[in-house]
Amino acid sequence: MGALVIGGVSWIGFGRDTSSDKVEELTIYSGRSEEFIAPFFARWEKESGIKLNIRYGDSAELAAQILEEGENSPADLFLSQDAGALGALSVAGLLSKLPDSAGDQIQSQYIGDNRTWVGVTGRARVFAYRPGAVAKLPTSVAELTSAQFKGRFGIAPSNSSFQAFVTALINEKGEKFAEKWLAGMKANDAKIYLKNSEIVEAIDKGEIDLGLVNHYYVWEVSEALGREINAEISFFSPGDIGNLINVSGVGILGSSKKESAAIELINFLTAKPSQIAFVEDTHEYSLLSGVKAPEGLPKLEDIGAPEVDLGDLEKVQRTQDLLTKVGLL
Amino acid sequence: MVKSGSYGLRALVAGVLITISQPLLYLIIRAGEKPAGDILALLTRSKTVEVLGATVLLLSAVVAINVLLGTALAAGLHYIEIPYPRILLVMTVLPLAIPSYVFTYTWKALVPSLDGIWAATFILVLTTMPYMILAVTISFQRIDSGLIEVSRSLGLTKPAVFFRVILPQVRRSISAGALLSGLYVLSDFGAVSLLNVETLTVSIQNLYKSSYDRSAASVIGLLLFLAAAIFVSMESFLKGREFESRGAEGFQQQIRRVKNLPLSVATTFMLATYAFLAVVIPFYVLISRFLQNPAAVAISDLTTAAISTITVAAMGAAIAFLLSLPLAFLMTQGASTFGSISEKIILMAHALPGVVVGLALVSFGSRLGVLYQSIFLLAFAYAVLFLAKSVASTSSALSLVSPQLKEVAATLGKSKSRVTMEVVFPIALPNLALGVLLVFLTAMKELPATLMLRPTGMDTLATEVWSFAAISRFNEAAPYALLLVLLAAIPTFILTIPRSAKNEASVKAKVN
Amino acid sequence: MTSLSISHLNVNYGSRSVISDLSFDLREGEIASLLGPSGCGKTTLLRAIAGLIQPTSGTIRFGSQLVGVSSVVLPPHKRGTGYVPQQGALFPHLTVAKNIAFGLDRSTHTKSEISKITDEMISLIGMKGFEDRLPSQLSGGQQTRVALARALAIKPKLVLLDEPFSALDAVLRVELRTEVVGLLRELGSTAILVTHDREEALVSSDRVILIRDGKVAQNGTPEEVYESPISPEIAASTGDVLILPAEKLSTGQTLYPLSLDGSGKTGSETGYVVIRPEEIRVSVNASLGIEGSLTHIDYYGHDAMLTVTLPETGALISARVAGPSEFTVGQKVYLQHLGPVRYFSRQ
After folding, report:
1. Shortest CB distance from A56 goes to which of B214, B367, B467?
2. pLDDT digits (tens, 9 = 90+) for B55-67
3. Nearest residue of B to residue A67 by CA position?
4. Per-residue pLDDT tens over the stretch B263-286
5. Beta strand pairing status for C31-35 and C191-195?
6. What backbone phi and psi angles, to 5 degrees, belong to B349?
7. What is the ipTM of this complex?
C-alpha cells in the first residue's frame, strides 16, 4: 500500500534513476495486474530496501512498448502474463541471458530459449463444464467439432490465452489442421465470448454446457460472485494439445544496469514462499516441483501437458489471421 | 499581400507544424522499414479492405446521423417552444464528459449482446452528437435577428426562413461539427474495440500488439491518415463558398420561439430520448455499480488519480493553447493559402489515434532521457492530439475581436504586441478560456497515449477505469468512471453557458 | 498640431485603384472635410494617413516629417494621429477613464499626469461623473465624445474623424457636431473629417476636399466649393442644384431657359448652366421674370422648394423660397435668376 502511494507521488519526478553503486530503485513493466502482483512487489521492497517503479499494463502492449523503446527502455525487468510476449522480446535480442542461479529451481521446460526468461507461474488450458450436462466428457479438444456439442460450447477467440493455445496448435499440428479444426468449431456453432470469465458465468447460468478456459477461472468467478458455481474443470487426455500449459514469466532487459538487483527479485518470485502465495492468492500453478497444486487440481506434472516450445508462442499474428479467415474474429 | 510582420508568424506556424508532424514522420519511417512488396500485400489483402470498408461505413453513418439529427436537435433547442430549454441543452451536451469506452461499458452492462457496427454507430453517435449540437447552437446564437425579421416581413413562412435564411448561415458550423465528429470516429479506439468492430485504428492496435510488427501497424496508420485527408478535403468541399456573414449587429430581438404543439412535443420527445440514452443510462449504470460496493476504492486512491488527471490534462490544454496561437493569429490576418493549408494539416493530424501518437512519442521520447515518461511529454502528447480543437477555438475567439479596435489601439501608440496584450487578449479571454476548457475536458478522457507515456506509477482516472475493467472488476472501475465523468461535467457545463448574441467584442450604441 | 501634405498618393487593392494621384495640403489648425459618395476612397485615404494602409506610391508628410511613402513607412503607432472611427470603437473591457487614458504611455507619463490629463479630457467633453462607466452603459453620442477624448488625450498631431456622427439621429448629430468642431477649433487642431453629409462638410470645415473615384475633384473653402463648383457633378454633391440645358453664343452670352434675353438666337456651343435653387426669385408680379406654372410645393418648415414648369420648354425649375409659402399649386409665377451664370460646356 505504502509503495503505491509513494509510487503515485513520484510521478512528479522525471525518468529513471541511473545511479550505479547502491541500487535504490528498479523499474518493472508488469503485464500482471496490480490487484494480483502488487502485494508481492511490496513484500520484496520491504525485504530488499529497493524501491520498485512498477508500470502496469497489458503484456503485449508493454512488450511492444519495450520493442519501440529498444535500448533506451527505462525498464529493468519485464513481467509478462504469458510466454509469447517474452518470446517476442527474446527474439528481438532485448533480454539478457540469465545466469543459472536465477530461478534455478524452475523446471527447464518453463524456461525461455537461451535462458532469456524464466517462468513464474503456470496457467493450464482446460475445459470447464456443468456437471450433469455433458454425458461423456471430451478426451480431446478435437472432439469439440462433433455434433454432440453443437451450439453448446463457448470459446473466447479474442482472448490472448486462447490465441496462445491456437498458436501452439499451429506450431504442433500445422496450419492446415488448425484451420480445419477452427472452421469445424465455427460450423459447430461455437458461442463467442470476450472473456474466459464470461464463459464460466455462461456455464453456470446454463447458456452453454462447456467451454475452453484457463484453469483458474472457475475459482476466480466463484470468488467474484461470492458463491459456489455450477461449473467444474477437467483436462483432456494426457498429451492432448488442449492441455497446453502456458506460463507467466520474467526477464531482465539487456539495457538494464541493475542486473544483480533484478536477479534478486526474480529469485524472490521463484522462491518457495512466493510460489506458495501465488497458488493461494491467484490459484495459479507453481512451477516449483515441491509446491502443492491449487486446491482440487492435479499436480502440474500429472496433467499430461503436450510438449510445446513456449518461446514459439510469439507468432500471434498468424493465429489472428487464421481466426479472422475462418470468421471467429 | 503578405505583410512583413507575418513572416515571423509564418515561421512560428511552420515550427508548430513540424513539432506536431512527428507522429506522421514516425509512421513514414516505420512503414518504410517494410519492403514495398510487403506493404502492397498488406494494403491489398482482403482483411485490410474489410477494415477500410467498416471504417468508411461507420464514419459515414455517424456523420450523416449527426448532421441530420444534430442540426434538428439544435434547431429545436433554439427555435421551438419547449419546456426547460436550458436544462435540455445542458443534458444534450453533457455526454461530452463521458468517454466512449465508459459509454460502451455502461450500455453493455444493460445490453450484453451489444455488438457490431450498428452498435458502434449508436455509441459513437451518443458520444459525438454534443460536438455538433454545441457548434450549431453557438452559430444560432450569433445570427442577426434583424435578418430573420426582415425575412418574415418579406413574407417568408417560418420553415422557409429556417431553410433559406438560417440554415445557410450555420452551414459552416454544421460542417465543422461534422468534421469533428468524423475525425473522432476515425481515431476512436475504446468503443469500437469493445464492440468487436475492427476499424483502421483497432487494426493498428491489433497489429502492434499481436505481431509486434510496428511496420505493419504504421502502414495501416498511414492508410488512416490518408482516409482522414480525404475526409477533410471532402468536408471543405461540402462547406461551400465562404461568405462574409456579418455577426449580429444592432439591437438583438429575442427570438420568439415557434409555438406549434405537435412540433414542440416531437422536439421535446427527441431531446428527452437523447438525454435519456446518453446521460441517464450511463449515470444510472455507473451509480448502481458504485452503490453495490461504495467502499471498493479508497478515497485516497481516487483523489491521487483525480489530481494526476487534472494536472496533466490542464498542462496539455495549456501547451495546446500556446501551440495554437501562431496559426490563430495568422488566420485573423485574413485568408491565405499558407494559413488554410496549415489548418488542413492540423486537422488531418487530428485523426491520428492516441495509439499512434503514443507510439511515436515513445519512439522519439525514449531517446530524451529524463523527459521520457514525464508528465511534460504526456501533456505534449495531449497537445498534439487535440491541437485541432485548440486552433479552431482560439482562432474563433480571436476573430471576434473587431479589427477596428486593433486599429484604433495602434493609432493610440500601441505596437502590435501591446495591442495583442492590452486589447485582443482581454476581450477574447472568455472565449479563449472556453477553448482551453474544451481541450482540458477531452484530455481528461484520453487513454491509449496515456497508458504508454505516463510516468511509471502515475495513474489517471481513465487508466484506472481501463485497468479494472480489463480484469472485470467493474465495482472498482465504477467509482473511477463516475469521478471522471463528474469532473469532466464541470467544464462541459461551463461550455453550455450562453454567450450573449450581442457580440462582446464591439459595443453597440444603445438607442438614445 | 502639424500641417499635412499629401502628394501624388496612389493606393491599389490588387489591380483595383482606390486612390489615384491624389494631392492636397492642409495648414496647421485647419479643419478639412473629405466629402464624397460611398466607395470614393475617402475612408481609405484617412486610413492611409493614419498608417493603417500602405500607399502604393506617393508621399504623406506631417509638417516636415516624411511619414508615409511606399518604401519608408512609419507604423501607425508611431504617427501620433488621433483616429476616431465610425461608431466610436471604444474598448469594451475598459471604463471611460481607462479608455481615455489608453494612449497615454506609462513610461513617459507619471500616474498623476495621466490622471490629470484624463480629468481634463472628461471635463472637455462634459462627462464628469462617467469615469467608471463601461462603454456598454453609454449612449451613442456619449461614446463618440469619449472616442474623441481618447484621441485628443494623446495630444495628436492630426485628428482623423471617420464619419463619427453617422450613427446618430439628426438632432443629436447636429448638436454633437457643433460641440466637437467647437472643441477642435478651441484646441487649434489640424483635423480631417470624412463625411458624406454635405451640410456637415460645409458647416464644419475651413476647407472642403471633394473626392471622386479616388481623386481630388475640387479643393477649396466651403464658399468656393459651393458657389464655384468646377463641374455640374461637383455642384450636385455640395448642395441642391438645378441644371438647365444652355447654349453659348459667339458673343459670349449664355442662353438658357431662365436667361432674360433668350428668344430667337441660337448658339454655337451647347452645355449646361448650374443654378442653386435659392438663387431664383419667385414672384407673382409679372414684370419680374419669366412666366411659369407652379406645379409642386415641398414644404420643409424653414423653407420650401417650389417646382415650376416653364410653358414653352416644359423645363422643371426648382426654386427655394423662405418660410411659409404664399404660393399655391397651379398659380402662375414669375422667375428671376439672381445668381452667377455658371456655364459648363457639354463634356
Report:
1. B467
2. 999 999 999 999 9
3. B212
4. 888 889 999 999 999 999 999 999
5. parallel
6. -65, -25
7. 0.82
